[in-house]
Design a protein that fits this description.
The chain folds into two domains: 8-172, Rossmann fold, CATH 3.40.50; 182-253, ProC C-terminal domain-like fold (Orthogonal Bundle), CATH 1.10.3730. An eight-stranded mixed beta sheet has the order 3-2-1-4-5-6-7-8, sandwiched between helices. Helix 1 crosses helix 6 (147-158) and helix 8 packs across helix 9. The model is unreliable at 279-286 (pLDDT under 50). By secondary structure, the protein is α/β, with parallel strands linked by helices. It has twelve helices and eight strands. The protein has helices spanning 15-26, 41-50, 62-65, 77-92, 108-114, 147-158, 171-180, 182-199, 204-224, 229-235, 242-252, 255-275, and strands at residues 8-11, 34-37, 55-57, 70-73, 98-101, 121-125, 135-141, 161-165.
Length: 286
Amino acid sequence: MTTTSVTTAFIGGGNMATALIGGMLAQGAQAARLRVVEPFAEARARLAARHPEIAVHAECTPAAVEGCGLVVLAVKPQQMRAAATALAPVVAGAPSPVVLSIAAGIRIADLARWLGGYARIVRAMPNTPALVGKGIAGAFAANAVDASGRALAAAVLEAAGELVWVDDEAMLDAVTGVSGSGPAYVFYFLEALEAAALELGFAPADARKLAYATFSGAVALAQASPEEPATLRARVTSKGGTTERAIAALDAAAVKPAIVAAVKAAARRARELGEHPGAADTNPRP
């Protein structure tokens, strides 16, 4: 059983939900088997304009979720309790759909309680490159989710990129630190590389072009090679050369341990937010 033959409902129609829906459609999902529950009229209008063939509902009613094999909770963390509470009586009367949560910091135990004790839950942490089909997500499945249920959740997440399953829900905090927050680290590095190019005399457009192409090219080279990044770095670091001088400056500034510390700090914050569900975000909409 795949998402092409299972009806899927998204609770929340923001950017991430839209990215996943677009990926699913591109991979052959039938629009008639997709539904979205979106309380904000403006967001519903955007969804209807972009995907007129998909049923869009203003409220989580039985009609919106009836017959669904998968329900994706794609609301912001501070909206999750209300969304799950509204969904609870609906899933209780449905033929046991898998509930996939992609909200940061909301643990399965809290979500199960808000769902009235419902147990078929998968929790995932995707990242923003999913918006261009280049994301990666970490996921954990509760014991009540069987192999076919995991496959349904995987098909949705892999529609927007790659997927790593973890055996311990606590590892999703680590996923958050590495890849959930990770795009910001990359943007931070790109900012610095672009700033350096500007200081060295390049025009803004050329500075950005040099920074972006250098980063994407290096990643492509690393992905095409069976060797570790440390080996690849050593190969382009000639003794007494320019790269060696640059790496020495980075080492002197303790850049590598600072990055490791930053990732661990993000993971700790993710754990803290999980202890206070709904506190991760105060913005009303994505």
